[in-house]
From TrEMBL:
SUPFAM superfamilies found in the cross-reference section: Acyl-CoA N-acyltransferases (Nat)
One Pfam short name: Acetyltransf_1
Organism, as annotated: Roseateles violae
UniProt name for this protein: GNAT family acetyltransferase
Domain of life of the source: Bacteria
Domain N-acetyltransferase stretches: 13-177
Length: 196
């Protein structure tokens, strides 16, 4: 892992961009925290889940300028959470949060909230004005979490194949510099209700 992008909890946790050498640690994190994969895909993470996450790119024709897989590591290097991000996705200053997973043992502790808050401040500092994500409809914990963060639905997409399941996604957006969902939809037509 590199020297870190930002710190949380008085420096007890550091967010770092993960690299190829971190794939085994990310795989161990996924296997120790399988709830997301079981809920959304119907099975625990596969043997190559971390490598797939590191290699995952948007489809051709979907523009972006940067991509990160970020690990939130404690002082001993153990992963507490992870996030995957794209900058300038589909439009300038729109950032996409592809995945955010906190260790199951931290759920309900407030720590995932602190991790996300620090991540959002970092993205804002990097120029993000809009954040977007997709949450699986029926993943009640995630739906509540993102709603509490100020994300609002713009549309539903699907069905999409996730692992062994067909799922519908709730596409959600949050302005970081003011603005309304209608203004966002002038930038990202793909997220308008009824779009293919």
């Amino acid at each position: 892992m590199d020297s870190g992008l930002f710190s949380i909890e008085g420096g007890a946790v550091t967010a770092r961009a993960l690299a190829a050498a971190d794939v085994p640690a990310l795989q161990r994190f996924f296997e120790a925290n399988p709830d997301y994969f079981v809920l959304t895909g119907g099975a625990p993470p596969g043997a190559n889940e971390a490598q797939s996450e590191m290699d995952d790119l948007p489809p051709a024709g979907m523009s972006y300028t940067g991509r990160w897989v970020i690990g939130f590591a404690d002082a001993g290097g153990g992963l507490q959470a992870m996030a995957s991000l794209l900058s300038d996705f589909l439009a300038p200053r729109v950032w996409h949060l592809g995945l955010f997973i906190a260790a199951t043992s931290l759920h309900g502790s407030g720590r995932p909230q602190a991790f996300y808050d620090a991540l959002e401040r970092w993205m804002n500092g990097q120029g993000a004005q809009w954040l977007r994500l997709g949450v699986v409809i029926g993943n009640a914990r995630a739906e509540r979490f993102w709603h509490r963060q100020g994300f609002v639905q713009t549309r539903e997409r699907g069905p999409l194949t996730i692992g062994q399941r067909q799922q519908m996604l709730r596409v959600m957006v949050k302005p970081l510099a003011g603005g309304t969902p209608a203004q966002y939809l002038t930038l990202v037509a793909r997220d308008r209700p009824g779009e293919a």
